[in-house]
Write a structure and sequence with these properties.
Blueprint lengths: L2 H11 L1 H5 L8 E7 L4 E8 L5 E6 L4 E6 L3 E6 L5 E6 L11 E6 L8 E10 L2 E12 L2 E12 L8 E4 L5 E4 L18 E5 L16 E4 L4 E6 L5 E5 L6 E6 L17 H10 L6 E3 L5 E7 L10 E6 L4 E7 L6 E7 L7 E6 L5 E5 L18 E6 L8 E2 L11 H8 L1 H4 L17 H4 L2 H10 L12 H12 L11 H7 L1
Helix pairs in contact: 4-8, 8-9
The chain binds heme C.
């Protein structure tokens, strides 16, 4: 019996179940996107907003939207009905200040709290305030000021996110002061970690301080992966926009270091301060903004990626992560110049994705805003197939991965990140005489494979040389470098 017939019989037997069915949500459709296998549709969930800076879903089926001017709305995801929940009157909005970061409590049913950060200006004094509001029926009430830090005319950040540890993280800007990011006494240019009531957790790196990590300029994105890794996106100065993987107590180098540790003074500072390199940097800059980890299986091509909206780049970047989440292996660009500046991204309860445009902000681009801007866009799977869909492209300069990144990508699933392998199954590479020995048999084994060891002949000479040098010079191995010409010779 076909499925439709079954459904019809079910309907007839329980008439009420057919009539009570909710009307199907019908939204204005803008585009169809083709990935390798999946097809996606882009629809307008909501329009006519003004710079929706932050999007958050709660556990009750709502999308929360914070607009930079000071308005907070809640959209029912099954009906698209929108309600204004709060208008904050003392927001100081100019260029990049205003109502910025927002987070909803992860256990929203029992703790109906919404956290908001915004800029205020009293006389000539600018500050950045973090409030906790409570949901009461159809509005946000009872604001409690959790923290107030120095603000500035620019570089106020900011993003908020809850970690899997139940703590609240706040990515603050350096307010354009070059001394703050490295000064541990200052709360600017930091990632702060606090209890949901604003108090200092006893297990912070310095138990008397909210500082979780330092050395930041102006972060615009903050997200946790399913395994609890914390990523940020950050605006560089004229060069070197960044995505960072944050560790407790880490120093990310600003303002002495910009992006990768590639200049001599940067290397000196990095050596003295154990600073951490970004996992991706961009020059020319793209102005990265909201970032969201995508761990869902719904859109399989995007499982285990970071979704990154960009302002200057006017695109969504899809950053494929390695299995352990510590490196970015690939990058794709979608919607370039199509919807304009994109401010934030978040993942919905069914694995769908929401994006906000930012075409009414301080830096409007030629050709924008489009009618109906600013919009909240919904991206979800579709059965529709069209002859000329939108497609992703690759960045002009392909990612060049180093030996460690290539090893993690191709070898670590069997030989493990630390080279120890798996007893009786995958040999250890640490201390292996084959790894440390003659060049020829090693190159041939890796390129041609052996028994359960796959052949890696598809690697370029450079890639193979990088990986082989990496395994010969790590985990206590101290053998000579292998060069591209050597790989070429022994293929
Ligand atoms: C699917 C699992 C798997 C992957 C992925 C894999 N290997 Fe292996 N590797 C093996 C197995 C199994 C052996 C043992 C082969 C044999 O001798 O039967 C092996 C053996 C080796 C050896 C020989 C070690 C010794 O002391 O005998 C080297 C070197 C090596 N692999 C390097 C690599 C490198 C480099 C990569 C990534 C480019 C890689 N392997 C990826 C499974 C894997």
């Amino acid at each position: 019996m076909t499925r439709t017939l079954l459904a019809l019989l079910f309907c007839l037997a329980f008439l009420s179940s057919c009539t009570k069915e909710q009307p199907k949500l019908s939204l204005q459709q803008l585009d169809i996107v083709r990935l390798q296998q999946s097809w996606l549709k882009v629809e307008v969930l909501s329009d006519s907003m003004i710079v929706p800076w932050d999007l958050e879903t709660d556990s009750q089926g709502f999308l929360w939207v914070a607009e930079q001017e000071g308005k907070v709305s809640r959209i029912n995801l099954s009906t698209a009905e929108k309600k204004v929940m709060l208008v904050i009157s003392d927001v100081w909005q100019q260029r990049t200040s205003g109502l910025l970061g927002m987070a909803v409590h992860p256990d929203f049913a029992n703790n109906p709290f919404v956290y908001l950060n915004y800029t205020v200006k009293k006389d000539s004094l600018i500050s950045s305030r973090l409030f906790r509001y409570k949901l009461d029926k159809d509005s946000l009430t009872d604001p409690i000021l959790l923290l107030e830090i120095e603000g500035g005319t620019s570089h106020n950040g900011s993003r908020l996110a809850f970690g899997p540890d139940g703590k609240l993280y706040w990515a603050t800007g350096d307010t354009h002061d070059f001394t703050y990011a490295q000064n541990s006494e200052k709360l600017n240019g930091k990632i702060l970690r606090m209890n949901p009531d604003g108090s200092i957790p006893s297990d912070n790196p310095d138990p008397g301080s909210l500082v979780w990590a330092k050395g930041f300029r102006n972060m615009q994105g903050l997200t946790f992966s399913d395994s609890g890794l914390l990523y940020t996106s950050e605006h560089g100065d004229a060069i070197e926009d960044e995505v960072n993987l944050i560790i407790a107590g880490g120093n990310y180098g600003w303002p002495i270091i910009e992006g990768m540790h590639d200049l001599d003074p940067e290397k000196v500072f990095a050596g003295e301060n154990q600073t951490i390199e970004p996992i991706r940097s961009w020059t020319p800059v793209i102005a990265p903004a909201g970032i969201a980890f995508y761990g869902e299986k719904t859109i399989p091509e995007w499982t285990n990626t970071l979704l990154l909206t960009t302002l200057k780049g006017k695109s969504l970047r899809i950053l494929q992560l390695s299995q352990d989440g510590k490196t970015i292996l690939d990058e794709e660009i979608l919607f370039e110049n199509h919807y304009g500046r994109l401010r934030d991204v978040t993942v919905g309860p069914k694995g769908e994705i929401y994006l906000s445009t930012s075409n009414k902000d301080w830096n409007p681009q030629p050709g924008f805003p489009l009618p109906g801007d600013d919009k909240i866009l919904k991206i979800s799977l579709t059965d529709q197939v069209v002859p000329s869909p939108l497609e992703a492209s690759k960045p002009a300069e392909p990612l060049i991965l180093n030996g460690e990144q290539l090893y993690l990508n191709y070898c670590a699933s069997c030989h493990k990140a630390n080279g120890t392998g798996l007893s009786e199954v995958f040999p250890t590479l640490a201390g292996s005489t084959l790894v440390k020995g003659n060049v020829k048999p090693l190159i041939q084994l890796v390129l041609k494979g052996k028994n359960q060891m796959p052949a890696f002949g598809f690697l370029s000479n450079r890639e193979a040389a990088e990986i082989l040098t990496y395994i010969r010079q790590n985990w206590g191995n101290k053998a000579s470098e292998i060069t591209s010409p050597q790989v070429e010779e022994n293929r």
